[in-house]
Amino acid sequence: NKYSFIANLKSFNKITSTSLYEYYEKNIRNNSPLVYVFGNITFKEVNNLLSPFVEKKIKPVKIKKDYYVFTNPRKETQYLEKKYKTSTSTLYLAYFKDNMQKEELIYYYFLIDIFNLSIGVSPLFKKLRVENNLIYDISASLISSYGVFYIETYLNVSKKDIVLKLINECFQELKKKEVIIKYQDLVIKMLKDNLLREKDSKYASLSNRITKDLEFGYLESEYLEIYKNIDIDLFIDFLNELKLDTVYLAKGVLDERS
Asked: Which of 257, 84, 81, 79 is nearest to 155 (CA)?
């Protein structure tokens, strides 16, 4: 919306009671939240409980579980750049695979868990920060509905080219069977630790129930079993088919070193 901005002191001075109320009307009052309820309860009972607290009429919603509209990569990588009034630059790398299939998402999840291992263990963070001190931080994520795998890293813009080179080296290194097996063991250990923490979380059972009912993905326990038996050769084939689609630099113009 038009009131979105990167916060700074001058921006706060532009806020008025009118702009705040317009924002409330558009984004808060007119928001339609999705309420998920399960258990021995009817829609009528839910309606009676919630109606006093909401202005809009409550109605049941049937959710379509076909979430996936996969996108194929461009023939050539596109390079984009935009300047922002920030002191740090952010580099985004988006990857796609031709003719992506829903069943192949597990390879994306496995790749993300490898790249997002703890500091000093993650191959990306280890190579780019620990060994070469080129970045501030780095992470891997997935927009599963479109099959978009992307890497986000905060860096000084003058280091962009070497960072791109070393990220590509990480991918190439990960195509070695013995390297994958090493990280497979580390990811499995991480998941086991997560499952222990889950036992102490009162929200874990609710989150797991929603994930299963709405078919959002796998549970931690399911990832654990899948990763134990993942076909490494097929994973390597998947990595070979990944294509770098877009490189986007959000250039921080307040960074004196840029």
From this structure: 257
